[in-house]
């Protein structure tokens, strides 16, 4: 079986690379399961100080795989796992991020992107809503500023992603920008990192506890509607949906 998540390690930093370029690293049931297993191993390994989540190809993550979507509960569990992992997780993005991929980005503790990256909440254009991914997104961003992109599905650039709170930093050379961040994590005590992360994620986890069930139900309901079926069919057929005027 082809591995969908690559793994390398350098000086106690484990790099997990989404590696399903044929689907633009879309969140399939298999990819979600493999990433979850890799994260679980990182969380148990005392030699892992931090995790970098990155990708191969030109897309960090295209969102849910419409041909092999993950169970909504599995996606919620993956996002929560990123947040609860007792190691800082740093997103490294050098390509496009769409829909559910932005949920992964928001679940990471820090996020850096190259100047060529682009972002879009495309759910509304296929007849659904960014429901489950709102669990990590809304507590960590400015909802008023986010409203434009949630409601329109427009693309936006890394500078705007920084302004919204989706990114920590953007730079022409993302690895150069991340070098001092990773150096700082390597210099920090593991126990202190874990407890400091707990402080930073407490409000996000409160949102999961309160809203996960209702947002999962909303996602399931919307994906079963006629508009969602039309939207997904139009997307796969590369045409405008019937409601476009």
Automatic annotation (TrEMBL):
SUPFAM superfamilies: ClpP/crotonase (SSF52096). InterPro entries: ClpP/crotonase-like_dom_sf, Enoyl-CoA_hydra/iso, Enoyl-CoA_hydra_C, Enoyl-CoA_Hydratase/Isomerase. Belongs to the enoyl-CoA hydratase/isomerase family. Gene3D superfamilies: 3.30.300.220, 3.90.226.20, Lyase 2-enoyl-coa Hydratase, Chain A, domain 2. It holds the Pfam family ECH_1. PANTHER family: ENOYL-COA HYDRATASE, POLYKETIDE BIOSYNTHESIS ENOYL-COA HYDRATASE PKSH-RELATED. This is Enoyl-CoA hydratase family protein. GO terms for molecular function: catalytic activity. Coiled coil: none annotated.
